[in-house]
Amino acid sequence: MSHWKQSLEVDLSTGEIRTEALPDEFLREYLGGAGFTTRVVYDEVPPGTDPLGPDNVLAVAPGILVGPSVPTGSKTAFGFKSPLTGGYGKSIVGAKMGDQLKRAGYDLLVIRGAADEPVSLVIEDDDVRLEPADDLWGKDTRETGAALKDAHPGVRTAVIGPAGENESNISMIECEDRQAGRGGPGAVMGSKNLKAIAAKGTKGVPIAREEELKELNNKWRLETMGKGEIEMEGTGSASVDVQYGTGEAFDAKNTALGIYPTRNWQSSYFQKAYEKLADPDEDRVPLDPRYWTGEYVDTKRPCPYCTKPCSQWFEAEDTKYGDIAVDGPEYETQYALGGNVEVDDVEAVAKANQICDELGLDTIDAGNAIAWAMEAVEKGIVEPDTDADFEFGNAEAVLETLERIAYGEGDLGELLMDGHLAAARKAGAGEDFVVHVKGQSPAGFEVRGIKGMALAYGVSPRGADHLTSCMYALEMGGSFWEFEGYDRLQMNGKAIALKAMEDLMMVYDVTGVCKFTRGITLAEGVRELVNAMTGFDYTESELLEVGERAYNVSKAYNLREGFSREDDQLPPRFHEPIPDGPSEGNSIDEAEYDRELDRYYVARGWNFDGVPMKETLYELGLSGLAAEVGASNEGGSPAPADD
Fold first, then answer.
1. What is the mean pLDDT of the chain?
2. CB-based burial of residue 318 (10 Å sphere; 0-12 exposed, 13-18 middle, 19+ buried)?
3. 353 backbone φψ class: left, alpha, beta (φ>0; ψ -120 to 50)
4. Do 156 and 298 lie in a common domain?
5. CATH code of the domain covering residue 196
6. Secondary structure element (H or E) that encloses residue 80, with its range
7. Within a 13 Å sphere around the CA of 62, how many CA atoms are in the beta-carbon half?
8. Dihedrals φ, ψ of 5, to 5°?
9. Which of 365, 317, 309 is nearest to 337 (CA)?
10. In this structure, is residue 216 part of a structural domain?
């Protein structure tokens, strides 16, 4: 046995709590993690459901490899209909709560309905209950987590802050210094009056072949500890490692590649961050972690079972922004609340990170909302009501605005609390410089200088996203996994690699293994771990099919909600030439993009409208989806374009 074969079902509207058996076929076809949550959301959230209504679900599932000390096997998936995009919602987090959920005896948690008053869900093995949370409502995430641990020693938590309570569409779920950040899951919890999930398990984890898994764990622990990840063009070795974390390649992305988004994506090179290094009177510490980890980081607080800890616990006292204590800032925060708003002081960015973590905001979407607003102010579209001068580079304005967004306070806070696309539509102008796909802000890879990522952002079902494919690992180095000789400045020929990378990364989301091991374990390494855990004895192609199946379900969900090829397009800014830096002059040509989009659809077995062919869905065992959304072959299948 490798699963508990048990789902914990909680109805907040009625207070009913029960368990439900999970069929063997479901376990084998979806395995765990995002496989489970994706299918649950498709099956249980009908088209047109209000994401902030009681008919939305919150599905939580640890990956199949979470629990038995698999190196970096820490990831838990949260699935929901996204209030930010109106489509498929998925957020992956290295959550200690997910590990404890598995140890309590559950492969899956499904939360339905909405409570009349604030509640917390407490899970202690077979003792599962809803507790009043009126005393926690209004508290920040750290206060909430601490109170739950005092009341229930040994629990691990997933909680929301004021941003989630106020149903901000860019709010996240805080999992003890790790965040389920993308797509607005905090708002989903807030709409359900669910302040927190607290879990403690003592049952261990079922394993099919325990000795074999123990040997493999020892093998991969040695393989993954301290190992590099990718080689990057013109930079030598660069990796996510224990010294600098995800910001390891900050300098390379700026000075070698020119793919660091700056000033609401107007530039791809943060020149200001380097100019001050030559100023002997400058006392601000730069964003590049080579300059600050030694001064501010004394310890790490990694995810469970981590052998490649990217964690950087940042501490500073009596700064101009007050005391600071936060895990980070990691690279995406360095970009979104740093370069993209032109703040080049790491203390300011770390404080912004702390505010987001405590109040429950996604740093990527919050930073992009503020960057958009700063440009909108310059263009006379928005009138700011902040105390600090609301302009690029003003850290005080950023910190003040984050507080306002979380509480929906003031004209600017109310305008931005649902993200920058919603803000532009409320303002009636400025949508032409909102940088998004499907309403979600991209991660910090300037796609005009790394063009396969443009396609990756465009087609990702959850909106602009780097981790759906991790295509940047191939783009930045030119070679990865089965693919070699890729030019980051060419759009042509990226479709087949992208499809394969997406399937592989969905396998990581299903298994719970961290994607920072992706250059080491790859498909074959994950396969042998999964087979020892489950006894299923997948071939490599069968395991990748698990990823492909879940990916097609996520696409089908969006199609059923009315998404189309138009939703796979890019924002206008990506078609403008980059004005400066190493990638100067590059842009995304619309005709080239559409041609590669056609090729991608063909590689996936979809038609030119981006709809999976019925035969594709049949081959993946998705006959029900084929009947609901599948495209017919009538009139002929699309012919593959010539790569």
1. 93
2. exposed
3. alpha
4. no
5. 3.60.9.10
6. strand 75-81
7. 31
8. 60, 40
9. 365
10. no
Q: What is the pLDDT of residues 309-351, one digit of tens each?
A: 888 999 999 999 999 999 989 999 999 999 999 999 999 999 9
Q: How many domains does the chain have?
A: 3
The one-character DSSP state at 515 is G
Cis peptide before 329 (omega within 30 of 0): yes
pLDDT in tens, 498-528: 999 999 999 999 999 999 887 788 899 999 9
Cα separation, 69 vs 102, in Å, equals 13
String of DSSP letters for 92-106: EEE-HHHHHHHHTT-
Report the C-alpha gap between 331 and 326 in whole angstroms.
14
CA distance 565 to 553: 17
Cα separation, 603 vs 605, whole angstroms = 6
* Residue burial 171-209, b: 16+ Cβ < 10 Å; e: rest: bbbbbbbbbbbbbbbbbbbbbbbbbbbbbbbeeebbbbb
Residue 634 lies in a domain: no
Task: Give the range of the structural domain holding residue 478, as residue numbers without chain letter.
Answer: 447-519+538-629
- Asked if residue 127 and residue 177 are part of one domain, the reply reads yes
Is the pTM for the entire model greater than 0.85? yes
Cα separation of 488 and 451, whole Å? 6
Say whether both 272 and 359 belong to one domain.
Answer: yes
